[in-house]
Amino acid sequence: MSMSTPDFKSLSRNDQLALVAGVLVFIASFFPWYGVKFKGALAAFGGGSATVTAWHGLAAFGLVLLLLGLLVVAAQVFAGASLPAIPTSYELVAAGLSCLGALFVIIKSFDLPTYSGADASVGLRWGGWVLLILVVVQAVVCVMRVLAANARPASSSAPAAPLPPAV
Questions:
Q1: Please, what sign has the CA dihedral across residues 100, 104, 109, 110?
Q2: Cβ burial, residue 80 (10 Å; 0-12/13-18/19+)
Q3: In a designed cystine with 105, which of 62, 65, 153, 160 is the match (CB 3.0 to 4.6 A)?
Q4: Pairing mode, strands 115-116 and 34-38
Q5: What pTM did the predictor assign?
Q6: CA 10, 12, 16, 19 torsion: positive or negative?
Q7: Cβ of 63: how many Cβ atoms within 10 Å?
Q8: 124 — phi, psi (to 5°)?
Q9: Most confident listed range (5-14, 24-33, 34-43)
Q10: 3-class SS of residue 115
Q11: Tens-digit pLDDT profile for residues 127-152
């Protein structure tokens, strides 16, 4: 008994983008997200810089939600026929998780203290900006999947129920 899994190239563009964006969010979450860079005399005495990844506080919760959104997309794409029926669509679940996760990462990224002076600079690092772009991309692509799913005709052959008359 052979079950065929879809080839990545045979997936829709939105499915491909959602999977790639989710994987890139996971990778970028380990880049230098926030940190301090010492300048001038402080750099000579205490080192040059220190950074942390996005796996801290509210941003970590957002990343978990984004990864759950990725897992829902992957499960739907690669094992859609064996998933249980739910009252809503899996596209909507993935979009909700991704949008909420992106919101938490964005809020935490802009809530961090910043400082820029002659002796040091504190704030988002290059990995933080990359992560912000990628979480927005994942959320937008997941919303695009919802819109594409709503544009497809329903799979059931039963006619739609008529709307009640307007009062």
A1: positive
A2: exposed
A3: 62
A4: unpaired
A5: 0.82
A6: negative
A7: 25
A8: -65, 140
A9: 24-33
A10: strand
A11: 999 999 999 999 999 999 999 988 87
